[in-house]
Design a protein that fits this description.
With about 220 residues, the protein is mainly α. It is built from ten helices and two strands. The protein has a two-stranded antiparallel ribbon with strand order 1-2. It binds iron/sulfur cluster (SF4). Iron/sulfur cluster binds next to loops.
Protein backbone atom coordinates (compact mmCIF):
# COMPACT_ATOMS: atom_id res chain seq x y z
CA UNK A 1 0.00 0.00 0.00
CA UNK A 2 1.30 3.51 -0.78
CA UNK A 3 2.47 5.49 2.27
CA UNK A 4 2.53 2.37 4.46
CA UNK A 5 6.02 3.21 5.62
CA UNK A 6 5.22 6.83 6.52
CA UNK A 7 5.96 7.40 10.19
CA UNK A 8 2.98 9.41 11.48
CA UNK A 9 4.27 9.25 15.07
CA UNK A 10 7.57 10.89 14.13
CA UNK A 11 5.72 13.40 11.97
CA UNK A 12 3.44 14.40 14.85
CA UNK A 13 6.41 14.64 17.27
CA UNK A 14 8.22 16.95 14.87
CA UNK A 15 5.17 19.23 14.57
CA UNK A 16 4.79 19.27 18.35
CA UNK A 17 8.51 20.00 18.77
CA UNK A 18 8.34 22.90 16.33
CA UNK A 19 5.52 24.46 18.34
CA UNK A 20 7.22 23.84 21.70
CA UNK A 21 10.54 25.27 20.50
CA UNK A 22 9.06 28.11 18.50
CA UNK A 23 6.32 29.37 20.76
CA UNK A 24 8.15 29.65 24.07
CA UNK A 25 5.41 30.83 26.34
CA UNK A 26 3.60 32.78 23.67
CA UNK A 27 5.32 35.55 21.71
CA UNK A 28 4.20 38.34 19.43
CA UNK A 29 1.96 37.87 16.39
CA UNK A 30 4.82 37.90 13.87
CA UNK A 31 6.68 35.21 15.76
CA UNK A 32 3.59 33.01 16.10
CA UNK A 33 2.81 33.47 12.39
CA UNK A 34 6.38 32.47 11.52
CA UNK A 35 6.15 29.33 13.67
CA UNK A 36 2.89 28.35 11.95
CA UNK A 37 4.42 29.04 8.53
CA UNK A 38 7.21 26.66 9.47
CA UNK A 39 4.71 23.97 10.44
CA UNK A 40 2.77 24.42 7.18
CA UNK A 41 6.01 24.25 5.15
CA UNK A 42 6.91 21.03 6.96
CA UNK A 43 3.47 19.56 6.19
CA UNK A 44 3.66 20.63 2.53
CA UNK A 45 7.14 19.09 2.21
CA UNK A 46 5.80 15.79 3.58
CA UNK A 47 2.96 15.87 1.05
CA UNK A 48 5.37 16.76 -1.73
CA UNK A 49 7.57 13.80 -0.84
CA UNK A 50 4.72 11.32 -0.49
CA UNK A 51 2.01 12.07 -3.05
CA UNK A 52 2.70 10.82 -6.54
CA UNK A 53 1.43 12.29 -9.80
CA UNK A 54 -1.48 9.87 -10.06
CA UNK A 55 -2.78 10.82 -6.61
CA UNK A 56 -2.45 14.52 -7.34
CA UNK A 57 -4.30 14.12 -10.64
CA UNK A 58 -7.21 12.51 -8.82
CA UNK A 59 -7.62 15.38 -6.36
CA UNK A 60 -10.23 17.89 -7.44
CA UNK A 61 -9.76 20.35 -4.55
CA UNK A 62 -7.94 23.57 -5.29
CA UNK A 63 -8.23 27.34 -5.47
CA UNK A 64 -11.54 28.32 -7.05
CA UNK A 65 -13.58 25.36 -5.81
CA UNK A 66 -15.59 26.62 -2.87
CA UNK A 67 -18.14 23.80 -2.75
CA UNK A 68 -17.37 22.74 0.81
CA UNK A 69 -16.65 26.22 2.18
CA UNK A 70 -20.05 26.22 3.93
CA UNK A 71 -19.11 24.09 6.91
CA UNK A 72 -17.68 25.09 10.27
CA UNK A 73 -13.88 25.05 10.27
CA UNK A 74 -11.94 24.50 13.49
CA UNK A 75 -8.70 26.42 14.06
CA UNK A 76 -6.10 26.57 16.79
CA UNK A 77 -5.06 30.02 17.98
CA UNK A 78 -1.66 30.15 16.17
CA UNK A 79 -3.52 29.50 12.93
CA UNK A 80 -5.87 32.41 13.62
CA UNK A 81 -2.90 34.65 14.50
CA UNK A 82 -1.16 33.65 11.24
CA UNK A 83 -4.30 34.52 9.25
CA UNK A 84 -4.58 37.93 10.95
CA UNK A 85 -0.89 38.64 10.23
CA UNK A 86 -1.42 37.66 6.58
CA UNK A 87 -4.44 39.98 6.27
CA UNK A 88 -2.31 42.89 7.51
CA UNK A 89 0.13 42.39 4.63
CA UNK A 90 -2.22 41.19 1.87
CA UNK A 91 -5.02 43.76 2.19
CA UNK A 92 -5.34 47.49 2.57
CA UNK A 93 -7.12 48.98 5.57
CA UNK A 94 -10.44 49.43 3.75
CA UNK A 95 -10.48 45.84 2.51
CA UNK A 96 -9.58 44.58 5.98
CA UNK A 97 -12.37 46.60 7.54
CA UNK A 98 -14.89 45.22 5.06
CA UNK A 99 -13.69 41.67 5.70
CA UNK A 100 -13.75 42.15 9.48
CA UNK A 101 -17.41 43.24 9.22
CA UNK A 102 -18.22 40.16 7.11
CA UNK A 103 -16.43 37.91 9.62
CA UNK A 104 -18.37 39.50 12.51
CA UNK A 105 -21.62 39.00 10.61
CA UNK A 106 -20.91 35.34 9.85
CA UNK A 107 -19.67 34.68 13.39
CA UNK A 108 -22.95 36.05 14.73
CA UNK A 109 -25.00 33.87 12.37
CA UNK A 110 -23.15 30.57 12.85
CA UNK A 111 -22.68 30.75 16.62
CA UNK A 112 -24.21 27.55 18.08
CA UNK A 113 -24.92 26.28 14.56
CA UNK A 114 -23.86 22.74 13.66
CA UNK A 115 -22.62 21.83 10.18
CA UNK A 116 -25.99 20.47 9.02
CA UNK A 117 -27.84 23.68 9.87
CA UNK A 118 -25.13 25.86 8.35
CA UNK A 119 -25.20 23.81 5.14
CA UNK A 120 -29.02 24.01 5.07
CA UNK A 121 -28.88 27.80 5.39
CA UNK A 122 -25.95 27.96 2.99
CA UNK A 123 -23.79 30.36 5.01
CA UNK A 124 -20.46 30.54 3.16
CA UNK A 125 -17.06 31.27 4.65
CA UNK A 126 -16.45 35.04 4.71
CA UNK A 127 -12.95 34.48 3.36
CA UNK A 128 -14.31 33.58 -0.07
CA UNK A 129 -14.02 36.31 -2.66
CA UNK A 130 -16.69 37.02 -5.29
CA UNK A 131 -15.21 34.46 -7.69
CA UNK A 132 -15.24 31.73 -5.04
CA UNK A 133 -11.52 31.83 -4.27
CA UNK A 134 -10.13 31.63 -0.77
CA UNK A 135 -8.61 35.00 0.10
CA UNK A 136 -6.32 33.42 2.68
CA UNK A 137 -5.23 30.43 0.59
CA UNK A 138 -1.51 30.59 1.60
CA UNK A 139 -2.44 30.55 5.31
CA UNK A 140 -5.71 28.60 5.16
CA UNK A 141 -6.38 26.39 8.19
CA UNK A 142 -4.98 22.87 8.48
CA UNK A 143 -8.57 21.59 8.54
CA UNK A 144 -9.23 23.13 5.10
CA UNK A 145 -6.01 21.58 3.76
CA UNK A 146 -7.22 18.14 4.90
CA UNK A 147 -10.07 18.15 2.36
CA UNK A 148 -9.11 16.17 -0.74
CA UNK A 149 -12.21 15.21 -2.67
CA UNK A 150 -11.82 13.52 -6.04
CA UNK A 151 -15.12 14.81 -7.36
CA UNK A 152 -16.73 18.23 -6.72
CA UNK A 153 -20.04 16.90 -8.07
CA UNK A 154 -20.06 14.26 -5.32
CA UNK A 155 -19.29 17.00 -2.74
CA UNK A 156 -22.29 19.01 -3.96
CA UNK A 157 -24.56 15.97 -3.83
CA UNK A 158 -23.32 15.10 -0.33
CA UNK A 159 -23.97 18.66 0.89
CA UNK A 160 -27.41 18.68 -0.77
CA UNK A 161 -28.19 15.40 0.99
CA UNK A 162 -27.19 16.88 4.37
CA UNK A 163 -29.25 20.01 3.60
CA UNK A 164 -32.17 17.71 2.85
CA UNK A 165 -31.84 16.00 6.22
CA UNK A 166 -29.88 12.92 5.12
CA UNK A 167 -26.80 12.96 7.36
CA UNK A 168 -25.30 9.91 5.66
CA UNK A 169 -25.49 11.28 2.14
CA UNK A 170 -23.27 10.03 -0.64
CA UNK A 171 -19.86 8.62 0.39
CA UNK A 172 -17.01 10.88 -0.72
CA UNK A 173 -13.82 9.52 -2.21
CA UNK A 174 -10.82 11.38 -0.87
CA UNK A 175 -7.10 10.97 -0.36
CA UNK A 176 -6.97 9.47 3.11
CA UNK A 177 -3.21 9.93 3.43
CA UNK A 178 -3.50 13.71 3.07
CA UNK A 179 -6.54 13.84 5.34
CA UNK A 180 -4.82 11.84 8.06
CA UNK A 181 -1.56 13.77 7.67
CA UNK A 182 -3.32 17.11 8.18
CA UNK A 183 -5.30 15.76 11.12
CA UNK A 184 -2.03 14.53 12.62
CA UNK A 185 -0.48 17.97 12.09
CA UNK A 186 -3.45 19.60 13.84
CA UNK A 187 -3.04 17.21 16.78
CA UNK A 188 0.71 17.89 16.85
CA UNK A 189 0.15 21.65 17.07
CA UNK A 190 -2.44 21.20 19.85
CA UNK A 191 -0.05 18.96 21.82
CA UNK A 192 2.74 21.54 21.46
CA UNK A 193 0.47 24.28 22.77
CA UNK A 194 -0.60 22.11 25.71
CA UNK A 195 3.05 21.39 26.55
CA UNK A 196 3.70 25.12 26.67
CA UNK A 197 0.66 25.67 28.90
CA UNK A 198 -1.07 27.60 26.10
CA UNK A 199 -4.66 27.35 24.90
CA UNK A 200 -4.90 24.10 22.93
CA UNK A 201 -8.64 24.21 22.27
CA UNK A 202 -9.88 24.51 18.73
CA UNK A 203 -12.33 27.31 17.93
CA UNK A 204 -14.71 27.87 15.03
CA UNK A 205 -12.85 29.93 12.40
CA UNK A 206 -15.10 33.01 12.27
CA UNK A 207 -15.53 33.18 16.07
CA UNK A 208 -11.76 32.96 16.56
CA UNK A 209 -11.04 35.55 13.88
CA UNK A 210 -13.74 37.96 15.06
CA UNK A 211 -12.33 37.83 18.59
CA UNK A 212 -8.78 38.39 17.35
CA UNK A 213 -9.63 41.23 14.96
CA UNK A 214 -11.68 42.96 17.65
CA UNK A 215 -8.88 42.78 20.22
S1 LIG B 1 -10.68 29.43 4.95
FE1 LIG B 1 -10.65 29.32 2.71
S2 LIG B 1 -10.61 27.12 2.22
FE2 LIG B 1 -11.23 27.30 4.38
S3 LIG B 1 -13.50 27.35 4.37
FE3 LIG B 1 -12.81 29.49 4.27
S4 LIG B 1 -12.71 30.00 2.08
FE4 LIG B 1 -12.80 27.73 2.25
Amino acid sequence: MPHDSFDFTAFESEVTGRIVRGMGTGGDAQKIAAVMAGVVAFVEAALEGELDGAERTLMACGPGCATCCVVNVTVLFPEAVAIAAYLRTAMDAEEREELAAAIEGTAGMVRWMDDAERIRRHIPCPFLDRSGRCRIHPVRPLTCRAVTSTNPGACRRALDAVAGGDDEGEPLLMNLFQKFLLETAFRGVAKGLARRGLDDRGGELTQSMAELLRG
